[in-house]
Specification:
- The chain has a domain of about 150 residues: Lysozyme, CATH 1.10.530.10.
- Strands 7, 8, 9, 10, 11 and 12 form a six-stranded antiparallel β-sheet that branches. Strands 19, 20, 21, 22, 23 and 24 form a six-stranded antiparallel β-sheet that branches. Strands 1-2-3 form a three-stranded antiparallel β-sheet, with no helix packed on it.
- The longest helix has 26 residues.
- The protein is rod-shaped and about 140 Å long.
- A hairpin with a 2-residue loop joins β26 and β27.
- The chain has about 450 residues and is α+β, with helices and mostly antiparallel strands.
- It contains six helices and 33 strands.
- The protein starts with a helix and ends with a helix.
- α2 crosses α3, α3 runs parallel beside α5 and α4 packs across α6.
């Protein structure tokens, strides 16, 4: 019974407190409340009140017990944060407001806690997170108009470049994602190939990036690449990551060395070409590991003399046929080869192989003046003889030309076996084996002699 009385007493106290508050609100209202800075709270304890106050019709912002009609900004009560203009809640306000906690997005006078992503704050596009405006946000955000690039919380309409989100890297022009952009983009990781606004991770090889052909590897542009690359139009030579349209020289890949002219592999070229002082033999643009018989010579009389003297002593017998020195002998070779377009190193190396450096240790004797075994067959003891050193050299050179070319002779023919050769059947030194001589390795032996000569 006592417990019940105490409970009733407690309830009466709560009701009395509520009634007291209502009385204060009712009797404390001053009839002059419409005037600026008039005291609303007559109670001495409330005279210093600062915060939100309502008269039952509107909400006001008070400072020291008076309405502050000059106050514009944010204020808080148990119902949330509100926006005040001239001391009164502005129920029409939509925009930004600041307090010590940050910048906030207001809608109809109060913070919109549901605002997320890209929003129009009244004056500008902003990025919001639970009503709070992220003034430091830098990156991508989207709205119904597209994707935009933000810098420090605002759309940066001057931004052109790359940006990243969960879906990948994208290209922006004037602050907006450019879905039609195809070209280069650069970030701290390097240069990238963009296709329709996005990095093309599948791009490899020679790709048209904007106005340039670039070397691309998994979407990444290799700005340091120098070498060969392929696209549907052919093989191209790249310097520092882009086609070098002025490049003429060699390119190399797993299939060998190739001839490039004006940046493109020349599949149509077959023949000799001097590149950086070295003569290369090409077949359909490919450097062949063969040595052409016809073409410009790669040695000199002085080198031939030095090579010979390093291997033998010049025969005294040639004094009696008008060729007293090795210099004279080599000069004849040089002149005869130049006349017919035969490389002198080929003819001279062959003569040194056939005669064992003019020692004539084989079937053909020195007096035959036959320096290449012309007419000496395996089935007979025959061989051809010539009337002079020059005639013997000329016959050898003409016989080489018969094998290597279909062009006519410049000098009168002195080669007695010229007519028996299938013209142009052996354009390379290496293919003379089994043709000029029965030894299948004959051509390679001459080639090795040529190497010794040219490196002497």
């Amino acid at each position: 019974m006592e417990l019940s009385l105490k409970s009733k007493s407690y309830k009466v106290s709560i009701i009395s407190l509520i009634l007291a508050v209502l009385v204060v609100l009712l009797i404390g209202f001053d009839s002059s409340a419409t005037e600026a800075n008039v005291t609303f709270i007559q109670d001495s304890k409330m005279s210093q009140y600062t915060g939100i106050y309502t008269d039952g019709n509107d909400w006001y912002y008070m400072e020291d017990g008076k309405i502050n009609t000059t106050y514009t900004g944010m204020a808080y009560n148990i119902f949330g944060w509100w926006y005040f203009k001239d001391g009164k809640i502005d129920w029409t306000y939509t925009g930004e407001a600041n307090n010590v906690f940050g910048t906030w997005y207001y809608e109809n006078g109060h913070i919109n806690w549901n605002a997320n992503g890209l929003i129009w704050s009244g004056e500008k596009w902003r990025v919001a997170n639970g009503g709070r405006i992220d003034t430091s946000y830098t990156g991508m955000a989207d709205n119904i108009f597209g994707w935009w690039y933000f810098n420090n919380g605002e759309i940066d309409l001057n931004y052109t470049g790359m940006a990243y989100n969960f879906f990948g890297w994208w290209y922006y022009t004037g602050g907006r994602l450019n879905w039609t952009y195809t070209g280069e983009g650069q970030n701290v990781f390097g240069l990238w190939f963009y296709d329709n606004g996005r990095i093309n991770w599948n791009a490899n090889g020679a790709c048209l990036v904007g106005s340039k052909w670039r070397m691309v590897n998994g979407g990444h542009i290799d700005a340091n690449y120098t070498g060969m690359a392929y696209n549907i139009f052919g093989w191209w030579y790249f310097t520092n990551g882009e086609i070098n349209w002025t490049y003429t020289g060699l390119g190399e890949n797993a299939f060998g060395k190739w001839l490039y002219e004006n940046g493109r592999l020349n599949f149509d070229f077959t023949g000799d070409k001097v590149i950086n002082g070295t003569t290369y033999q090409f077949v359909k643009g490919h450097v062949e590991d063969v040595y052409y018989i016809m073409g410009g010579s790669n040695t000199t009389v002085d080198q031939m003399v030095r090579f010979y003297n390093n291997n033998a002593t010049y025969p005294f017998a040639y004094v009696f046929v008008g060729v007293p020195t090795i210099n004279d002998f080599c000069q004849i070779y040089y002149e005869e080869c130049a006349a017919e377009g035969v490389k002198v190193e080929v003819a001279f190396a062959q003569a040194m192989l056939e005669t064992n450096f003019l020692r004539f240790t084989g079937r053909v004797p020195i007096q035959a003046l036959n320096f290449a075994g012309i007419g000496a067959t395996d089935s007979t003891q025959d061989y051809n003889t010539f009337s002079s050193v020059r005639e013997g050299v000329r016959a050898q050179v003409q016989h080489l030309k018969a094998y290597a070319s279909t062009d006519g002779l410049v000098n009168p023919c002195v080669d007695p076996r010229f007519r028996y050769v299938s013209r142009g059947c052996s354009p390379y030194v290496e293919t003379l084996g089994g043709r000029w001589a029965s030894d299948a390795d004959y051509g390679n032996k001459i080639r090795n002699m040529i190497v010794r000569l040219l490196t002497s």
